[in-house]
Design brief:
Elements (H helix, E strand, L loop, with lengths): L4 H6 L7 H23 L9 H7 L1 H13 L21 H6 L7 H16 L2 H11 L2 H16 L2 E3 L2 E3 L8 H13 L3 H6 L11 H6 L3 H9 L24 H8 L1 H4 L4 H17 L10 H5 L1 H5 L1 H5 L1
Antiparallel strand pairs: 1-2
Helix pairs in contact: 3-4, 3-9, 4-6, 4-8, 4-9, 6-7, 6-9, 7-9
Length: 306
Amino acid sequence: MSAPADVTRDYALVPEDFVKHLVSTLVVVVAVVLLASLLFSLPEKPPLTIKEYATMHPVSFELMALRALDGTGDIANYGPPYNHGQGSVESPLQRQVGIIHPINAQSDFILKPVGMASEINPSVKGTLTRFETADARRRSGWESSYGPALSKGTYVHGSVLTSKGKFGPVPALLNDTLHLAQSGLMSGALIRNPAVITRFNNQNYLLFLQGAPLQTNPATQAMAGPNWGLIHPAINGYPGAWWMTIPTWIYQWPFVAAARASDALALSLGLLFWLTLALTPWIPGWNRLPRYLGIYRVIWRSFYRK
């Protein structure tokens, strides 16, 4: 196909290799990006892992595990969409959604992972069997009486030691859970799902540290409370997630912060704001706002001056 007459008459035609220019441009852009990332990239804060928390805070870890065992933990008593608890039920909408990600904290967080460990360490089996075969009343008695003792426990030679009492197999069970976590195998046990071939469900792994671990860790980085968390830098000297300013700002409004359904309210307001912008051309009156404000006359003042 020949070029139009005006093109051949008014412009010089020079042979070019489009692919060569495309590849060379790609190479230059990649080189600039890599160089900029080396010079200006933001160093990442290492993530908090189950192994790290169990190693650094063994007594606190067992207290968290005990709350999962007795059903008083954050997830154990959360409510929809995980279970029938009432700890974090925000609104009727949450109840209406129901339980779509069922979690039994005692079984999923403690008994099943320890049961997997018993396959390679038979000494764990006896403790686990004794606990599982006990009736609910006896289990509850062990758990409730062990809590005060565990809060004063000490970590000695790889195990948490407490005062003596009628705690049944609970101390040994929690120490087995601690050892599993410190070995680094707890994470894999939490996401293991024998029913499917592809095991990509990280739900239990992500929720296991809910509560004290994930509430304490941000506080040590000055990322909690009035610091607005998300937009505060995890590493001093570098900017935080400043693009999250608007959604986090909504959470600072008193009527949102004090509401039981603060998440739902903040997301609804954000959605309303987005819809207002997206539907601006079709909203009567609102779509005339640019003309009423006359800002375009300021931007194109040289044109309107003539």
